[in-house]
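WARN no homologs supplied; continuing
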Amino acid sequence: MLLERDYFVCQVSFPKLLILEKEEPLAFHEKIRKTFMNYKKNEESSTEINLNAENYGDNNKVVNRKYEFYNEDKQIHINLRSDSIALFCKNEISNEEFNGLLKNILEILWAIYEIPFSNRVGVRSTYYEKLELISESEGYGPPKKVSRNILGFFPIEMEHKVAANRFIQELVKDDQVTRVITGLGYLNKEPAFVIDIDTFSLNEKKTIEEIIECKNQHTTNTDYILDLLVEG
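OK structure emitted
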């Protein structure tokens, strides 16, 4: 891999489980505790706008619960909501190992809550190349590993900071959508050229085997796009 990977995530969506908006997923955590021993619950508040309301106070406040489970070194974690589950990975593990973890947590979740199907499967990953400071007067140099065809869109300010430029492309083929965001920014407070690839499909998947196969297709698509954007 020519570029460093910041993270890789696969998110699987399903019909909303109202019970997860009221009760914590204790049975689920008990099943995965051996690998994901750390647990944290977060609540995010938002306002549901009522267009017929006479004043702002009549709008509905919505509380969205998010349950997070981490492995020992917190490099792999699960994000569970009432309508989706996502598996995040920050370290480099094989595709087979990732698929094994994903298959295991899906089988557990499906069995506990009797989920009938998935209505969205997505894969997202972020890659980056750190920029080198040429000198105090010249600022940062351009990335060396990214295709020159892409770099034409991103002039770098010759100062001590990086221009916040982004270039977004969306590709649609059959039921698959791929969004590619490339540009300059900061990663861990350091200037970097970032490539963010988000691939997802919206058709129903009734079995876990179909979900894994779909995830593998998205991963292959991500690798193909990354090869186009990076110098060989």
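Confidence is low (pLDDT under 50) at residues 152-163.
OK
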